[in-house]
From TrEMBL:
<dbReference type="InterPro" id="IPR005811">
    <property type="entry name" value="SUCC_ACL_C"/>
</dbReference>
<dbReference type="GO" id="GO:0004775">
    <property type="term" value="F:succinate-CoA ligase (ADP-forming) activity"/>
</dbReference>
<comment type="similarity">
    <text>Belongs to the succinate/malate CoA ligase alpha subunit family.</text>
</comment>
<dbReference type="InterPro" id="IPR003781">
    <property type="entry name" value="CoA-bd"/>
</dbReference>
<protein>
    <recommendedName>
        <fullName>Succinate--CoA ligase [ADP-forming] subunit alpha</fullName>
        <ecNumber>6.2.1.5</ecNumber>
    </recommendedName>
</protein>
<dbReference type="Pfam" id="PF02629">
    <property type="entry name" value="CoA_binding"/>
</dbReference>
<dbReference type="InterPro" id="IPR033847">
    <property type="entry name" value="Citrt_syn/SCS-alpha_CS"/>
</dbReference>
<feature type="active site" description="Tele-phosphohistidine intermediate">
    <location>
        <position position="248"/>
    </location>
</feature>
<keyword id="KW-0816">Tricarboxylic acid cycle</keyword>
<comment type="function">
    <text>Succinyl-CoA synthetase functions in the citric acid cycle (TCA), coupling the hydrolysis of succinyl-CoA to the synthesis of either ATP or GTP and thus represents the only step of substrate-level phosphorylation in the TCA. The alpha subunit of the enzyme binds the substrates coenzyme A and phosphate, while succinate binding and nucleotide specificity is provided by the beta subunit.</text>
</comment>
<dbReference type="GO" id="GO:0006099">
    <property type="term" value="P:tricarboxylic acid cycle"/>
</dbReference>
<feature type="binding site">
    <location>
        <begin position="96"/>
        <end position="98"/>
    </location>
    <ligand>
        <name>CoA</name>
    </ligand>
</feature>
<comment type="pathway">
    <text>Carbohydrate metabolism; tricarboxylic acid cycle; succinate from succinyl-CoA (ligase route): step 1/1.</text>
</comment>
<comment type="subunit">
    <text>Heterotetramer of two alpha and two beta subunits.</text>
</comment>
<dbReference type="GO" id="GO:0009361">
    <property type="term" value="C:succinate-CoA ligase complex (ADP-forming)"/>
</dbReference>
<feature type="binding site">
    <location>
        <position position="43"/>
    </location>
    <ligand>
        <name>CoA</name>
    </ligand>
</feature>
<dbReference type="GO" id="GO:0000166">
    <property type="term" value="F:nucleotide binding"/>
</dbReference>
Amino acid sequence: MSVLVNKDSKIIVQGFTGSEGTFHAGQMIDYGTNVVGGVTPGKGGQKHLDKPVFNTVAEAVKEVGADTTIIFVPPAFAADAIMEAADAGIKVIITITEGIPVADMIKAAEYIKHKACRLIGPNCPGVITPGEAKVGIMPGFVFKKGTVGIVSKSGTLTYEAADQVVKQGLGITTAIGIGGDPIIGTTTKEAVEMLINDEETECVVMIGEIGGQLESDAAKWYQNSGSKKPVIGFIAGVTAPAGRTMGHAGAIVGGSDDTAQAKKAILKECGIHVVESPAEIGKKVAEVLNKK
């Protein structure tokens, strides 16, 4: 099994013919991902990367049965692209775009609440199920198939965690980059829950950062779930100076519970194996799975 994307996913690319869309769609296709076409308004009927281009998402759903989309639309139009995809019946909407205005995301997040879809991102690296589908901007060669799920706010730390897990002789079921913006579609708790409930996932790596309550909410859910699957946690930002703007827009420390130290304490209380450095993730995963 896997979560969100697999070899049967029918994926389209919104912003298909732009430079970012072209580059990453090409990488996805080379990986073996089932990209069935793309959307660029005004360019419908053309071929791009040997795939059909559609004017609207609705056309792509009708013509090629698309059920998953990845969005490379510029920030000013990205929220509209999310809502268009939801309207068209797309089930999984993965939004890579960084810098979407918060007011636009508030509107989009509210709009899709009433639709049968799941939004990943924005400002995220995407989702990968190794050997089946790479729907994102991550380096596919880092990921090997296995039994460890990854949830992360950070793109680069997703790749780092995967690399370490693989170097321990293990592999990944699905890695989900949830994004670092203040308003995102899928929370840490929701992503962790999906992986805990996945039959093939034996262990989950949860990578968070300062700011917000997402990791604490996930930890409390895990504690109450009764799950015996181990969760390894890392919180970035221990050395971040107070009052300094840095990194993700969502990494805003609003209170004492938002600091890295406070979050780590909550995670430990909830039964999560907390590591102090990202360099320790792989070893800790191997240790808890008894596969040294």
